[in-house]
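Chapter review: from sequence to fold.
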Amino acid sequence: MSIVLPGEQVPAQHVNLKLGPGLLQLSSETQQQAKLAPVIATRSGILNHSANKSKWWVEGNSRRYVPAPQESVIGVITGRSGEGWRVDIGSAHPASLDGLAFEGATKRNKPSLKVGSLIYARVSLAHKDMEPELECFDAQTHKADGFGELKDGFVLQCSLQMSRLLLDPKHFLLPLLGSRFPLEAAVGINGKVWVSTKDTKHTIAIVRCIEVVDPDGGGMDETNVKKFLSKLDI
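The token string follows.
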């Protein structure tokens, strides 16, 4: 990991290169040149990449979510828009969700979403000059795979950095909480977390733990979280 500044060139190259927030690949005249076009940072932060270096992104202290393709987000339906809906995902512009962007959806069989409904979706299109577009199915299998309307439960806001931590399979918090009581969770990379439990006190415990582990709220480690949990009435 290294710190990058806006305009700085990044050594991101891969056959299946995917760029996340904070990075931009400069345009080229030909398709062959496009594969070798330089990648630059568009904001300051810590440069990260996946294990095989196919995915690159810049992680900073940005408060506003900037959509990037393939990212999972939690949004709120704010209104109808033609055959679909407008969705607030916390970005500068509302996202659009087509009525057919669900598993098995047809013109006669569409989900019945209302203003205020919560959805777990995937960003299918993100461009600086266009509204982001969402879809509620896996791009490879066209199955729901957990995407769709989120019913009941509770939604909390956390920092963008915390949401990335929770999406890391190696992070300790959600497995630790799951070992204490049954829970369902959906994490949006846009800083929203949906949780559902059978007991209100368990929901409160999850919220409290996420707040104290969040780098913006103290960054508590696993050992101290276990001590913290032992003091809660769960």
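Two observations follow directly from the output. The helical segments are 31-34, 160-167, 173-180, 200-213, 222-230. Residues 132 and 194 are 21 Å apart (CA to CA).
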